[in-house]
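Final report, Chapter 2: Outcomes

The project's central promise was a pipeline that accepts a single protein chain and returns its three-dimensional structure in a standardized token representation, suitable for archiving and comparison. That pipeline is now operational. To close this chapter, we reproduce one record exactly as it appears in the project archive, with the input sequence first and the structure output second.
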Amino acid sequence: MSRIFSNLIRTSKRIDRDEFARTFGGIAEDVMEMLDGPQARQVVREAREAMESAGALRNGSPRLRTMEFGGFSTAPELERGEVAAVDGTPALPMQLYSAGQALCVGIGSLSHRRPLQESLHYWSSKAYLEHAADADDFIAREEEGLFGISQTAYLRYFEVSHGIEIVEPVVFFDGTLVYEWLTASREGVELYQRLFRSGKRAMGVMKSVKANPVFAKYGKALHTGEVYIIETLADHLDESRATNANRGEARRFALPAFINDLAPRILRGIFKPAKKPFGFEVHEDHLEDMLRIMGADCQLNHVAHEIPYLLNRVDEEVRRYFSPALLRDRIASTMARQSEELFMEEVDERLMR
């Protein structure tokens, strides 16, 4: 990391005000060179060669294949309402107070026959410090809590729980099928064991792959209408590639119970229905069915959002139903009524501006 930063400093260029006003200092051209220059094109060529020469999966099916996208009739499960999409959003962004943290998430699902209103749930909790032995312990617990709680992991836990509870036997999740942070906890491992023992077929679909260098490289090399299986989740965890944890979350390590049992059977790959690649995770036993259903529900006239139509719908509706501003304002007003001094100390500075 220090070499990268040193090179960043060494290659920086100073741009005066007039030049920036005229040409923006060539920054736009620098970005294009980075994305589409000779070196970037060479990486894509090498990725394409690797995909075309990759060996088959352990069940004998190819890693690289073509498939049909947008053929709704090829998955009758969709019309019968047997496929649901699950998504959630913070109904209250993680709130940090001097004595703890509070969070609330909203989760829902829908199918082609069932509206979101029939499956809306809120989940809320708090982590506070009433059990601290003394002042030093109080502060130590608070400092640990700053990065010890993952709101995204909390959200993803209840998304999967929701997916297990609903009646539909086929489920799409927005994001990875397995959230890596959860595999370091007993509760998370038990949750995924319940999911895969429930008899449900499930797939996680990632709307963007650019944050993962490996997925991004293969995504650029993928042709329209193709699917490529890159690795298993065990490969990913073993090679310690970039985690799917959010910024500020501590690096965590999956428990052996997950590494040895489920992780080798979770496949990670990419698909490109039109111009943009998407990522996915799916259990190997469900690969063929879930690719077929996912491809059938792709919305080819929705440019760059061709991912299963149901995921687009649930994403829009969940964010419409769960507004974080309302709950945050309610907390602030309650705090102000009970203690103006407490309000001034604890409320987010931006709310007072």
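Archive annotation: Strands lie at 64-66, 83-97, 100-111, 121-128, 170-174, 201-206, 226-232, 266-272, 278-283.
This record, like all others produced under the grant, will remain available to the consortium after the project formally closes.
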